[in-house]
Amino acid sequence: MSGIGVALLGFAAMLLLIAVRMPVGLSMLVVGSAGFVYLSSWTSFLAYMKTNSYHQFANYTLSVIPLFILMGALAERSGISTGLFKAAEAFAGRLRGGLAMAVIWACTAFGAICGSSVATTATFGRAALPELQRYKYDSGFATGTIAAGGTLGILVPPSVILVVYAITTEQNIAKLFKAALIPGLMAALFYCLAIAWSVRRRPEIAPMAPAGASLDRFRLLAGIWPVLIIAFMVVGGIYGGVFTPTEGAAFGAISMLVVGVLQRSLSARGILESLKQTAETTGMIFIILLGSEVFNAFLARSQFPELAADWVSHLGLPPYLVLVSLLAVYIVLGAVMDELAMLLLTLPVFFPIVQALDFGLPGDEVAIWFGILVLIVVGIGLTAPPIGLNVFVISSIAKTVPIAATYRGVLPFIFTDVVRLGLVVAFPGLALWLVRLLS
Amino acid sequence: MSNVANAGGSRPPLVERLSGTIAILGGLLALATALLVVLSVLGRWLSGMPWAQKLASSVGITLGPINGDFEMVQMATAIAIFCFLPYTQARRGNIFVDTFTGRLGPRTNTVIDALWDLVYAGMIGLLTWCLAMGAVEHYRSGQTTMLLQIIVWPAIAISTVLLLLLSCVALSTAVARFRSGA
Q1: pTM across the whole model
Q2: Do B94 and A287 count as a contact with CB atoms less than 8 A apart?
Q3: 3-state SS of chain A: helix, strand, coil percent to 5?
Q4: Residue A414 CB neighbour total at 10 angstroms
């Protein structure tokens, strides 16, 4: 059988195994190993696996992932999300739908400390949902807002998804973080517009909250300024080249710990819980990373990625048509698959294709721009039916709200995501401007 | 699609409880790594400031980034991640897709999950064996890191033991699932 035949068979076998509940990382590991042995030999597979797992994990660039997760877990346990939400509420609470907008802005600020959308959704599900329900917000509107707000965890840098993209495609993490800022802030702004539109159309979904005393605002800000400064220093430090991403994450984790202990918001128990949570989330990510490493070693031996890129570039299709088709594939895959696994599986094939296209931009700029486009479609995949991880997370917290109501609630937000995707496709400068400015 | 199934109410077996303790040790190692990196960055910053350098040399310290911090971070990160993996399995935290098997009923699904736990235990068993070979090879060659000349094999040996624990945890969750499904 030719290399391409084996590769296609490998993809099919893996998808089949995933469909019958085999954990995603394990199926990549099993199929990758089998394909590797078939295309080379047992001996070379054993030689490859000898220290591969150790050397893959002993990687300075990858160390940023556990550190960012640790920083987010400490932030989550220190209850900072409640403080951020209360402060945002004090500013936006008087508008109709203001509480929902407060969720969005608090998620944006939290997204600058936390690189995970699931963690952001879970923490605001606990911090903000009871408040929204207390003011009799429509339940699907409330859960939908939080599920959409949760995506800001990855849309606003730092972002675990961007780190994984950077490592898989050998791009600069700091540049990707710079490129993500404007589209990330656009997301927050567009989400607020979606809220404004929803409450204008159906005012009954968002009853007015009683006016808060304006004095409160500054007292509330006093409680959260250390965290805002940490977020600013971590992201700013990485942008300015003061820190490598690993250094920024380490600084963020240690300062979150210090602030939490000093403010007495982190107990010894809370610290232990955040360590355990870090362990579980990191373990989940690294098994998938290990599986994808083996699967990609198999793919590389089949020469499928180069041949596919070669084939597509010789079709002579307009570059934008290819790009939009790839993004469409991502939206479909993202609707039914785990986003991290989706990226690790597709990037070895899709990235060379994109690199072979001519958009009138330098190759490394195309790589950064494509990373941001991928980040936006991942955000859509996290909330879109039938399988949106964020929607599942919020449903597990708000057990009384039917999942269909939450899916209806996220629709306006997904619509703005698609608009934003179109804008960043049409104007690469939205992603690249800041990268050019700061380099 | 991604779900974290819950284990039964009874006290989990020893290997699963052990994995919780080891996860916390791994977490502490990650925290220590973060502290090392922060100290190294502080050293680098302060070494650029004449007053700090003067102050430090008066008490006999030379300021600067920690030598070879890079190598220590790599080694510690690898061990920390190997510490995390058994706990993720014990908590059944690995991502899987349950969209297409919903109709089969909880019992069939439990048996399927037990089967995949067995496959996982076997696959990780194979990786453990490979890594053990790697550890032996590094021991024989006496390979060290570039800057600090830290011998590499102990880190690989520790990782091997942790992988073996992961394989045992997967075996243990498989047994528990077969029991509750059968």
Answers
A1: 0.90
A2: yes
A3: 80, 0, 20
A4: 23
Between A217 and B95, residue with greater pLDDT: B95
CA distance A46 to chain B (A): 6
d(CA A355, CA A369): 11
Conformational region of residue B7, where left means phi above 0, alpha means psi within -120 to 50, and beta covers everything else: beta
Residue A321's H or E segment, with its range, is: helix A319-336
Cβ proximity of B37 and B73 under 8 Å: yes
Report how many domains make up chain A.
1
Q: Which residues of B63-76 are buried (b: 16+ CB within 10 A; e: fewer)?
A: bebbeebbbbbbbb
**pLDDT band for position B4 (cuts 50, 70, 90):** very low
Can you say how many angstroms the Cα of residue B24 is from the centroid of all Cα atoms in its chain?
Answer: 10
* Closest to A340 in 3D by CA, of A386, A301, A291: A291
Residues B34-55 pLDDT 10s: 999 999 999 888 888 888 888 8
Determine the 3-state secondary structure of B144 from DSSP. strand
**CA atoms of A191 and A406, how far apart (whole Å):** 15
Encoding tokens for residue B27? 């977490």
Number of residues assigned to chain B: 182
Per-residue tokens: B37: 């990196």
**Predicted local distance difference test score (pLDDT) of residue B2:** 37
DSSP annotation of A202 reads: -
Residues 6+ apart with CB under 8 A from A197: A412
Per the structure, the complete domain to which residue A319 belongs is given by: 3-438
Query: What is the complex's ipTM, to 2 decimals?
Result: 0.90
Q: What residue type is assigned to position A97 of the chain? A: G
Q: Closest by alpha carbon to A222, among A19, A84, A47, A102?
A: A84
Chain A stretch 240-259, residues whose beta carbon is closer than 8 A to a beta carbon of chain B:
243, 246-247, 249-251, 253-254, 257
Closest residue in B to A74 (Cα–Cα)? B31
Residue at token pair 């019992």: B107
Cβ contact A338–B97 (<8 Å):
yes
Q: Is the pLDDT of residue A74 over 80?
A: yes
Q: What is the pLDDT of residue B10?
A: 63
Confidence of residue B100 (pLDDT cuts 50, 70, 90): confident
Residue type, B159: S
Bond into A157 cis (ω within 30): no
**Which of B45, B81, B137, B152 to mutate to test binding with chain A, by most A CBs within 10 Å of its CB?**
B81
Max CA separation in chain A (angstroms): 74
pLDDT for residue B6 is more than 50? no
Taking CB atoms and an 8 Å limit, are B73 and A51 in contact across chains? no
Count other C-beta atoms under 10 Å from residue B3's C-beta: 14
In chain B, residues with a C-beta closer than 8 Å to the C-beta of A279 are 23-24, 26-27, 83-84, 87-88
Q: Judged by CB atoms within 8 Å, which residues 45-104 of B form the interface with A?
A: 70, 73-75, 77-78, 80-85, 87-89, 91, 93-101
